[in-house]
Structure formats: C-alpha cells, structure tokens
C-alpha cells in the first residue's frame, strides 16, 4: 500500500518536473510541453488505475493554485483557456495507456507501452483537447484539428520515448512496472 502511494506521488512529481522543460507555444495557443510524456509514463508504468490517480493528484495540486503546468500555470483558471480539454483528458489518457499495457500481456513491454501511449497519450488526449479547443476558440472540429497538426510528430516521438523508458525500467527493475505485476 505504502509503495503504491509513493509511486503515485513520485509520478505526479514527474509530471510537474516535466513542466519545467521550456515550452514552445504555437499560434493556436497550445504549448508543446513534455508533460504529456509524464502522463503516458504514468499509465505505462503504474497501470490504468494508479496512473490515473497519479495524474489526478497532479491536477488537484494544479487546481489548488500550484504553478505546475508548463509555463508556470496553475489554479482553476487553467480550465478557461484553450488547453482545458487537454488538462481534463490527462487522467483518461493515463488510464487508457495503462489499460493497454495491463491487458496486452502477450506483447513485448515496449510494443504494449508504445501502442498504449499512442492510443491514450495521443488519440484520447487529442480527442479531449480537440473538443476543448473548438469550444474555447469557437472553431469547428476540422478547423481545430488543423491547428493541432503541428503537434502530432512531437507527440509520436514522446510515445516512442515513453515506450523505451518503460522497457528500460522493466529490464532494470521489473518490480517497478506495476502495469505488468
């Protein structure tokens, strides 16, 4: 029990630390950050439930006002901006990523983590982000999708990084990979 709580807190902190990586903000107002990598790792390493809990802990801290989102953003006001859908989608993305890794035990860890990160950290997260941005910016879904296109390559790179880190952890410390235990 204590180990699970420690991992959840550790991965919430990981997401916060990845927010310190300097962001690049495109014309759409959505920053390119490393925090979605943290969300993917939460699911891939901790599994669906614990990964989502780590992200929820992170979001509770953000909503309480801690400036943990990239660019030093925090507080409930983050839900008023164009990235609100992404923020709301973070725990669902971690859950889906973790669920794929947990359920697809016949696949090598690296493949399950990659597919999980693509489905959770890209498809699901973009689904939430797309709807949130469209509503906040008053644009259609296709118009908003065009604004998000520049992010796809970077996010696919993050899925590969998440898969490789997950594989590395499984080789060095197999007990750490809660998604497979």
TrEMBL record:
It is found in: Cell membrane. Keywords: Cell membrane, Membrane, Transmembrane, Transmembrane helix, Transport. It holds the Pfam family BioY. It is a multi-pass membrane protein. GO terms for molecular function: biotin transmembrane transporter activity. Its main location: membrane. GO terms for cellular component: plasma membrane. The keyword Transmembrane helix applies. The chain crosses the membrane at residues 6-30, 51-70, 76-101, 108-135. InterPro entries: BioY. It comes from the Bacteria. Belongs to the BioY family. This is Biotin transporter. It comes from Cereibacter ovatus.
């Amino acid at each position: 029990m204590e180990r699970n709580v420690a991992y959840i807190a550790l991965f919430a902190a990981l997401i916060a630390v990845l927010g310190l990586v300097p962001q690049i903000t495109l014309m759409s107002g959505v920053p390119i950050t490393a925090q979605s990598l943290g969300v993917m790792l939460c699911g891939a390493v901790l599994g669906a439930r614990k990964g989502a809990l780590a992200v929820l802990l992170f979001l509770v801290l953000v909503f309480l006002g801690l400036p943990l989102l990239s660019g030093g953003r925090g507080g409930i006001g983050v839900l008023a901006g164009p990235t609100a859908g992404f923020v709301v989608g973070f725990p669902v993305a971690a859950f889906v990523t973790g669920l794929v890794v947990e359920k697809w035990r016949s696949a090598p860890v690296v493949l399950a983590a990659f597919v999980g990160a693509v489905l959770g950290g890209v498809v699901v997260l973009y689904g939430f982000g797309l709807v949130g941005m469209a509503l906040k910016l008053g644009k259609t879904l296709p118009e908003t999708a065009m604004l998000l296109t520049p992010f796809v390559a970077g996010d696919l790179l993050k899925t590969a990084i998440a898969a490789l880190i997950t594989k590395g952890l499984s080789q060095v410390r197999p007990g750490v990979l809660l998604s497979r235990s």
